[in-house]
Amino acid sequence: MHQTEIWTERLLLRAAEPNDLDAFRKWFQDPESMNYWSTPPHTDIEQTKNFLANMIGSPQNGVLDFVVCLQGSDPTTPTSSTFRMSSNNSGPGTDTESSMTVIGKAGLYDGQEIGFMFDRDYWGKGYAFEALDAIVKHYWAVKEDQPDAVIKADVDPRNTKSLRLLHKLGFVEVGTAKNTFETHLGWCDSVYLEARRSA
């Protein structure tokens, strides 16, 4: 599989790049954004550099795991970059320039399990659903010759917003387990979910 870009009504999903570091640093230093992450908030830029480098070096980067960019955002923000876009807003072209702000990351980071993080300034606006819905549809298209393909998720049961989002995307709970992961919160439980191709 090759790197690709996915365009939605408001978003561009693309491969991670080194200049995404400022955006990633903002989220990874935010205690609320990191509350249910597998590590505590980053206190050293090197931690974030390493995370981003690993994402860039992954075979899933830009294939099933993406940086999420908001179209038409303020070009003066430090996490913005400029893309050439066609006038019908359906993808890159040569007609107009549009600024993009990196607002999150989302995808199947290991090719099977879905994960996501979004800048807290953009929560509650439907961007996570829009991005993940596009990624799930992209996955089914990529795996069209595998009718039994499954997308998995592992969520802390206290993370009710993520659970609600995944249910809205068609994920169903398939199991639970106690004390599956030790993080900065202590021992965490898991709710296991799966999504399968619609008939």
UniProtKB/TrEMBL annotation:
Domain N-acetyltransferase span(s) in chain numbering: 11-198
Superkingdom of the source species: Eukaryota
Coiled coil regions in record: none
GO molecular function: acyltransferase activity, transferring groups other than amino-acyl groups
Lineage: Eukaryota, Fungi, Dikarya, Basidiomycota, Agaricomycotina
InterPro entries per record: Acyl_CoA_acyltransferase, GNAT_dom, N-acetyltransferase
UniProt-recorded name of the protein: N-acetyltransferase domain-containing protein
Segments for region (Disordered): 77-99
Species name: Agrocybe pediades
